[in-house]
Amino acid sequence: CCAGLRNLLQGLSFSAEYYSKHNPPQTVCRYSKIAPKKCHILGWSKSTCTHRTAPPGSILPCRFFSCKEGTKVLSKRKQNTSIVTSDLLHKSLLKSEQKNWNNISPTYKAVTKRIKEKLEELHNMYTLNSRSPRIRFGENVYFEENGCIFLAKADDGKGNAKILFSVEDLGFSDAFIQRIRISPDQRYMAISLKSENSEEATCIIMKLGNLPVVEKVIPSVLSFEWAANDVLYYTAQKNLKCQNVFRTTFTYQEHTKLVYTEQDARFFVDLYCTKDRRFLTINSNSKTTSEVWLVDCRHPFESPALVQARTTGLIYHIEHRKDQLYILTTYGEPAEYKAILTDNYIHRINLDDYWRSYRNSKLMKAPVASSGKENWQLVYAPERKTKLVDFEMFSDDCIMFLKNAGLLYLNVISFVSHSVQSIKLPTWACEFELESHPEHTTSTCYFQLSSPVHPPKRFAYSFKENNLIEEAVQEVPIITNCHTTRLLAKSKDETLVPITVFHNKNSKELHRRPLLVHVYGAYGIDLNMSFKEEKLMLIEEGWILAYCHVRGGGEQGLSWHRDGCQHNKLKGLYDLRACITLLHQVGFSQPKHTALAAASAGGVLAGALCNTDPALLRAMVLQAPFVDVLNTMTKTHLPLTIEEQEEWGNPLEDEKCMKYIKSYCPYQNIKPQCYPSVFITAYENDERVPLTGILQYVQKLRKAALDHASRTSKKGNWIPNIILDVQANGSHCDSSWEHSLNE
User: Which end of the chain has a smaller Cβ tally under 10 Å, C or N?
Assistant: First the structure.
């Protein structure tokens, strides 16, 4: 699902797909990757480019292979035969699964029709009534609706708006708007468009005026920011990676120049503009390390300046205020500490040794002129076991969103009074989204709160009044019949694992109700708990929804992720088993009414549990699941394999890693036994999870289930449904409402 700084802060474990936090709402895929080389900042001279080398950090370049003298190389005939055989096998499996789907899908026609009608009703009731995010520049407001970008006056109560851009009018009917950036003088607008069948976006630059015109079209662009009125920086995307930053200008003589090249396969490059628009930052991030370069927006043609050279384990993000860099970082001692207000903002006190150490992020500052970490001074540190999820800088204040024990808090730091105000947000809230507001001098901060079963609700914090305002939305029903429960399950090593449960207040005999369990547990990313119409529909029909915040995710900070990745991946499996067992023990459903849902990398834990504890489940639903870890991590020609080693390990160079991955890999551990029914959605054009691996997984799983059924003759023995729906359209990441509805 959005995204940028927020993803950066998901346990402060960087995803390779790190977007600016001011992206419009969207679903963002997060995968990451890793191998050190050199990166270069390219200086500009009239004749040639000069190079300054910097510490490593990189997106995977094109791979070149060489052989030692005397090494035999396979003949072209043998290579081609191997490729052709593999391709024929893939096509055969795909054709077989498509035939199976065409035979079985009519069985669900009636229930599909009923569900679709209900979801459309809920969508019209809630989502369509929610206002799209507004971008305000002085008296002007820009916003996007139904594939069009509009310009309106902020004080116009009549709703008059001018259309600046239409996806359909420009012949991009199958695309949707992903990001909008307005130049400082509002003469230009940059837009990224993305189709459902590709992860690459196209950037369109419009020259605004009485008759807006297309100035330039740039293919394969991910992030972009205006450094000045007519100077745009952007990152080029190739094979799911961003490694090059370009600068292009439009006034006088138009030209484009390569500014930065990142060559370490572990790192992913994106751009961000500080809230006061003083600096554009070039951010190069891996899961565990980051490096930031500053472009002075007053001098956009000067070479970028390094903030702090990359240091293994040091993650940081930059904001700016009054010649001071404000640095959100993991830098400093890992011991827990409590935030104490003093005239110098915060005094840090180490806590008792028996408390478990969670190395949370903290806010520090340093002068622009001397930005090295030796000059970083502490501004604010959260209390123990509190995760800093996101923050927004304003002229005299800083707003922070924090999470503690599953509850959200809003902290407001005043740089004028040197005080911190903490506000507990509604207990039903699980997700928040900051609304973009380019003017850092604004007196109000707007954001939305939601949960899987609560549609987004708009709130505003007023700096003048020092209070939180809940904005009323007419004609949108309020969800009152849903109860939220938070539990802690004790895992195999005694670790307490949080669970968030939703159910209808009016439901009786909860142990007889169907239960849908959700899990992810990878990349330091929190389990997605944003609003979905289908979740609310299930609650209304008496279902129980449970979200298991297992290790490997980012719910409890950096250490929570570390405890569930690489050689700790099995801990996430133990956590999931403990969560489902506890749910049944306390009276939430029972195994024969329990289903497990997971997507992408969440398929590893879900598929592993299906092998080790099939009796806990009746059904499993997977979306584009990663189920063949071992084979994927041994294929270095795949675009993400190198970068994924930081999450899963490197089985090619580490035999222990090879054996460990094999011990939990879903595909490797399928065996004849009584499996739950399984429904999988996959995408023909998925660039992240190879379809071949899913096809082979389904084939092997179905064979194991049939073998078990044929060997046993128990009364009531049943054969599970194992169904694969391969979507010709769609990709691993974004999808439109219509596509999601059909799926």
Answer: C
